[in-house]
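Record 1 of the preview.
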Amino acid sequence: MSGPGGTPPEDWRTRYLRLHSIVHDANTGLPTYATLIDRVRGMLDARRIVGVLHLDIAKPGDVETLYGWQVLDRILSRAASRLRELVGETLPAGTVLAVNGVGGDRFVAFVPSRFDGSEVDGAFLEELGAAARARLAAAFEGPEYAGL
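->
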């Protein structure tokens, strides 16, 4: 069995995996900003406003220099995992998460609405940002992260 142009199905999987590795960060499991353009455009078609929260790790270059890339990757992976847990809880359902690029160290949450479905505004996003920051900080309070 072959695909279009005589391409064997194994090549489809290889091509898919190659493309996936370009647009999804393997460490965090999150898509890159660029892959969400159409999805965010769809959000904007349904609503006037989509909130954007930018979350990053303070001085990731220093962490990598002092402790190594493995520690930084572990921190970024844990942060992404915690962010996913916050969706539907601290962040409204429907919030879409992304990372700035493959191997990236900055996260974005696209927030389509408040918890009650109404439009987001600056004050609401400030509250969400503070709550998310507090929950993320709590994820790194254990002895494993002491001294970082």
